Amino acid sequence: MSQNNIEKIIKEISKEWFYSSPLFFNVLCSHSIVQNPNLSIPIRSGAMRIEYSPALLESLSTKNIEALLQKEITRILLAHPYKRRPYNAKPGILYMASEAARIQAEYKTLDFLTAESANPTLEFLAQQIGPHATFEEMTFEKWYKYIYDLVKKAKGGSSLGTGFDENFQNYAQASELWEENEEALNSIQQQIQKADVENGFGEAGENLERALKTSSDFSFDYRRALSKFRQNVVSPDRKLTRMRPSRRYGFKAMGSRYERKANILIAVDVSGSITDESFDHFIHAVKNFFYLGIIEKIDLIFFDVNLKLTKPVSFRKKVDLSQIKGRGGTNFQVAVDFYFEQRNNYSGMIIFTDGEGAAPKIPAGLNNLLWILDSRINFEKSRQWITKVCKNQATYLPF
User: Fold this and answer.
1) Between the CA of residue 82 and those of 52, 60, 179, 187, 319, what are the distances in Å?
2) pLDDT in tens, 181-223
């Protein structure tokens, strides 16, 4: 089988996944497919690449090549190549831990003799602890520590078995590209969230789907987005503390302290599609983050096709959303224009909405805008135009 034939097979697998397994297809497309003739293993992933050995794949059937790709995509979905590595991590053991965690996610069992045939990791574990050992579900990190201790103990007793050293070297090569990558982790998280919204798990299998949903903390995205927004808008205000000059250095040696303060504008969409429940969830989320003594002032404005009040309302004031007149369509431009006019009075603006409306034009230099969508479904519908067209940050409430 020539290299061109292998590339053709991978393309055919990709086309099939487009219909049968959209999640696998999307992850495959997010990584570069690269041949690497120097590999002593058939396939590996990391650094936003999936590398393969033409020589080792040429004797395999299309079904076997697809199975190898599927395992590597699963490993990527579990984020093993992009997670933070333990201190002074052993690459071979990293890969063994990944294999154990992957199989546990796919099969929900560690019956080492039946889960996957001819898997060196399972053979090693079966030799050390028995073929039918049972485990509570363990994370990738816990598997690393567990297998590390097993390998260390087995080496001390010289019970590693024939062929272990060779497999271990291959494992080290398999994880050679692994490095912590927050951007890749975010991308994987978004793909899983999208699959959950659009029923895009396809033929991934119920066990893997359940494992991915469990491992994906959908609420984490909005907490992280709010924390990042807060860091951007809260700037340190330096104040000198020495009342008299130093005898030796004069005023050059004055002490200082920093007071972190910011004024925040919150624009609330009160069009007909926003419910009182969504509004209450939003207020609750923002309170948790901004009532920490570092935000000097938070103001609210309300809009549908136009602004509903002549001036902002203090965040501390109890607001009954049902009394805000309007409930019409949505015009984001009025909120953006108000923020632009008052940009000297505020450090940033949060827009709470369901995303139903035309994208506004964001004036040049108008920074620190965060959009919070009222649901994950609406987030998936709107995040492209918010992040691409408006060049703003977007998140959603997990309630």
Assistant:
1) 19, 28, 5, 11, 44
2) 888 887 888 788 778 767 678 777 677 777 776 665 555 566 6
